[in-house]
Amino acid sequence: MKSEFTLNELRKMDLNLLVVLSVLVRERSVRQTAALLHVGSPAISMSLNRLRELMNDQLLVRTGRGMAPTPKALELVTLIDPFLQDLRLALLERGHFDPATVTRVVRFAIADDLEAALLPRLIRALQEQAPGVRLVVRDADYHCIDKMLQSGDAEVVLAALLPELQLREPCQILYEEGFVALFDPKQIVLAAPIGLDEYLATPQLLISPRGEICGMLEPQLQALGRTRNVIATLARFSTLPLVLKETPILCNVPSTTAHFLADHFGLAISALPFNSSRFNIGIAWQHVLNQDPFTRWFTSLVSELMMELREQSQANQAPAQTR
C-alpha cells in the first residue's frame, strides 16, 4: 500500500470496499458477508482480492474455524467503522425513525442467568415492533464487556456492571441485584428463611462459566469465619433447574432469575442468612452507536423489558419466602 493517497487517487477508490472489509472482519465469513450485503459470494471474494492488492496485505486468512483478520485488517476497521457509522448517521433522516422499517442484524450479548427470562419477551417484541431485525445472541462475560463491544462481537451487552471494571464504552445501570438460595422443596426440606448452620450444611452448586470454585459470596463467609459446601460447578444456568429437580442441593442465584426459575419449575426460594454481595445489572453499547436511533430504541426496549421482569420479581418476593 502506498504511504499516501492523493485526493484524486482516493476519488478513484470504490468506497464500497470499506463496507465489505468492515463486515468481513466482523463476520469472518465470505458467505455470511454476502448474505448480509445482499450480493453473491463471488462478489465478496472479488472485493477481498481488490482490498488485498490495494492494502498489500492478506487482511483475512483461512483457518480451521473460518477466516481470521490480520493485524492490518483489525487496525483498518478501527478507523473504518467510526467513519461508516458517522456517515450513516449523517445521511439518516432524524426525527423519522420507525423500527418497523428497519432491516438490520443486531448482535446482543446477555448474561446467561438473564437469557431464559428475557429472550422470549424480547424476540416477541421485535417480531411485533421491528420484524425486519434479526437478533444474534451471544454469551456475555461481564469481565470482558469492553472487549466484546470494541471487537464487534456484540453491539449491545446486558450483564452485571461492576465498578472495578471501569468500562470505557457507554452504559446505563438498570437496577441493583442480590443473591437468594434456590432449591427444590421435594429434594430438600428447608424452612425459609434458612438459618446459617442449615445453609452451610447443605450441599451447593456454583454457576461458573470459567470453572472457578469460589464465587462472589466467599468474602462475606470468610469474614464470618465460615465456609460453604460447594460440591459441583455448572457452566450455564440452563441446566440448573434440571439438576435441582433431581438432586438435594441448593444454588445461590440472582433474585430476578431465581423468581423466574421458581415460577416455571416449581422451585423454592429463601433469603440468604447473611449479608451477601450486591451488584448492578446494566446495559452497555458501542460508543460508535451512541447517536444511532436504532441502538437507542433497542437499548430502551431491552431496559423496559428487564425492568418489567424486575418488578414482577419484587412483587413475588414476599410470598416466595414462605414457600
Question: How is this fold's topology laid out?
Answer:
Blueprint (H helix, E strand, L loop, with lengths): L6 H6 L3 H12 L2 H8 L3 H15 L4 E4 L2 E4 L1 H21 L12 E7 L1 H18 L3 E7 L5 H7 L4 E6 L9 E13 L12 H6 L2 E4 L10 H6 L6 E5 L5 H7 L3 E5 H11 L2 E3 L7 E8 L7 H28 L3
Parallel strand pairs: 3-4, 3-5, 7-8, 7-9
Antiparallel strand pairs: 1-2, 5-11, 6-9, 6-10, 6-11
Helix pairs in contact: 2-3, 2-5, 3-4, 6-12, 11-12
Short description:
The chain is α/β, with parallel strands linked by helices and 323 residues long. It has helices at residues 7-12, 16-27, 30-37, 41-55, 71-91, 112-129, 145-151, 196-201, 218-223, 240-246, 255-265, 293-320, and strands at 60-63, 66-69, 104-110, 133-139, 156-161, 171-183, 204-207, 230-234, 250-254, 268-270, 278-285.
**Individual helix count:** 12
Biggest beta sheet summary: 9 strands, mixed
Portion of residues in helices? Answer: 40-55%
Distance between the termini: 69 Å
What sequence of helices (H) and strands (E) makes up the elements?
HHHHEEHEHEHEEHEHEHEHEEH
Estimated structural class: alpha/beta
Mean pLDDT: 86
Poorly predicted tracts of residues: 318-323
> How many strands in all?
11
Rounded to the nearest angstrom, the radius of gyration is: 24 Å
Shape: elongated
Strand content: 15-25%
